[in-house]
Hints:
Chain A is of the alpha/beta class. Helix content of chain A is 35%, strand content 22%. Chain A has 2 domains: 6-183, Thiamin diphosphate (ThDP)-binding fold, Pyr/PP domains (Rossmann fold); 267-377, Rossmann fold, CATH 3.40.50.920. In chain A, the strands form 3 sheets. In chain A, strands 2, 3, 4, 5, 6, 7, 8 and 14 form an 8-stranded mixed β-sheet that branches. In chain A, strands 11-13-12-15-16 form a 5-stranded mixed β-sheet, sandwiched between helices. The longest helix of chain A is centred in the middle third of the chain and has 18 residues, at 146-163. Chain A is globular and about 70 Å long. Chain B is an alpha/beta fold. Chain B has a single domain (34-282), classed as 3-Layer(aba) Sandwich (Rossmann fold), CATH 3.40.50.970. Chain B has helices at 2-21, 37-52, 71-74, 87-97, 109-115, 117-126, 171-178, 191-203, 217-223, 229-238, 243-246, 251-254, 271-282; strands spanning 59-63, 78-81, 102-108, 130-136, 139-140, 146-147, 182-187, 208-213, 240-242, 258-265. Chain B is globular and about 65 Å long. Chain A binds chain B through residues 26, 28, 47-50, 52, 54, 56-58, 60-62, 64-74, 76, 90-91, 94, 203, 220-224, 226-232, 237, 239-240, and chain B through 23-27, 56-58, 60, 62, 65, 73, 76-83, 86, 89-94, 96-98, 100-101, 118-119, 122, 275, 278-279, 281-284. Strand 10 (228-230) of chain A pairs parallel with strand 2 (78-81) of chain B, so a sheet runs across the interface.
Amino acid sequence: MVDTQRTLLLGNLACVQGAIYAGMRFYAGYPITPSTEVAEGCARELPKIGGRFIQMEDEIASIAAVVGASVSGLKAMTATSGPGFSLMQENLGYAYITETPCVVVNVQRGGPSTGLPTKVSQSDTMQARWGTHGDYTAIAVAPSTVGDTVTETIRAFNLSERFRTPVVVLMDEVIGHQRELVSLPKPGEHQVINRVQPAVPPEDFEPFGLTANYVSPMAAYGSGYRNVATGLTHDTMGFATNRPDEIKVKLDKLRTKIMDYQSEITKLRVEMMDDAAIAFVCYGSVSRAALLAVALARRAGVKVGLVQLYTIWPFPDNKLRDYCGQAKRIIVPELNMGQLVHEVARVMPPDTEIHSLQRYDGEILTPMQLLEKLEEVM
Amino acid sequence: MATVEKSQDTDKQKSDVILNYLRPKKIFPSVWCAGCGNGVVMSALIRAIDRLGYSKDEVALVSGIGCTSRLPIYLDFSALHTTHGRALAFATGVKFAQPHMKVIVITGDGDCLAIGGNHFIHACRRNMDITAILINNHIYGMTGGQGSPTTPSAAFSTTTPYGNVEKHFEPCDLAQAAGASFVARTTAYHTPQMEKTIMAAIEHRGFSLVEVISNCHTYYGRLNRLGDAVSMLRMFKENSVTTAKAKNLSPEEMEGKYVIGTLYEDDKTEFCDEYQKVVDAHMEGK
């Protein structure tokens, strides 16, 4: 039987499909290479389903409109690349402190500054964790194929609604601009999570009330529950506070609601790790090269495996230690000057050899380069 | 005697209207100095919404950063107190997501015209049905009296200690040039006119700007020797001319005067209405 859902799709458009599947009905964005096709896809598709697309005056306004739409009740997304991601950091911080679900897609390109608009990079890995000022806990997910892009975008929306927090989808130019055959999910194939609505009468509603899992129910505008949101550090009513006890409760909430439930967030792909003495740990398009390198090396009898991170942030400390336990040598290939490698080094036992394989000239890491590094390490 | 009783009644009714719209559980006082124009605008806004008859769930207030921008937190509507200068961009998201709601932005001269200048001109251009109330006190109040884009040339502030060498923006001219379809000015003295102007702005379908000339006697008044709140309000009273009167005055006579009233109004198409046409034409299964 011919699978009619199987279609040749651009990575950036797979992101649009995933978002719509997850319930996105609002997109605000600003053109930037290599993410622009996400905006174009949303401009085409959203009116067809009664959704809304708007091109804003810049990326600052784009994420602002996204937060405004989400606070008032619609699932919302924006997409950008490095320079735009930098501009979004201000209001991304606002989304963290106001606990507003939204999805921010960063199709990474080379930097700093305008950098390499059409070239691949993973140099925003750390920015996705630490980009905005202040203390907060970030969630970031990363696809490595066009098919992954559909499912990881759905997952990003689900995590953002589940945890009332922004979620970053860390794509890169290779995935965004790649065309692959994908099977689009059928209705019901994936779970779609929606934010929890208040169960108390409006007069008892606390917009940032503490619950058993630290996630406060969220009411839409016009629902009878009158929301308050402020970027000022606030109490459970959403009112600004300078009281040390309330400040600590708020900041702890931002961390605990995510870190105590990390098992719901962490997603890894583990290949050939049962007997591996050496492991590749990587994410995104680099893991495609790593998969082939592992297969080729295994054919030659080398005990090497791969741990691919679908969840970059929060960093999967325990899971990574579990899977890499017996591998005493780890290679971290990445398209930057070494970012993920520091996290791996932080997590692994001190007797583990950590090797960094960096490429930052705008080109992809090839399987051959990974094999060369493997030989060097062996 | 009867007259006095009647007047007391009216005052009580007036304060009941105000109290009905203050956010429950919010602890007052506000952050505003005694006599600040922000409170005058807040009560005019309450009366305007009350007279228009909108329910509390039909109104959303959005603001940025500054003394003025604290206003939405005090009132019992959905409130979004956002980042500096970005209120109009957040409000664009709210209004476009919930077109049935009345979205009102409360902003100050620094918030709207300096850091938020780009969002301001694009909100005007887009002509989305948002009402922006720009409380213009010619200075940054919250940070302690620095010069703003509406600080007049030669005026004093803590960052223009020898007099302002810059030129200032005229927000109403800027809004009209950028495409806003309703532009009006009032002052913190002219409260009945302010109330009516805010009502007209809310009812106007399209982007509307209400500039309120207001007093920061604490900083602007003190640094420029303009006296206390009452003196500044008297100055607004004495230096304001209506649009009708302004037509007959020479440029010399208009020097230093505020023109109050509706300065510009048109019926150009509104953003959400136009987008809805796109949805109606392309929605699947229709």
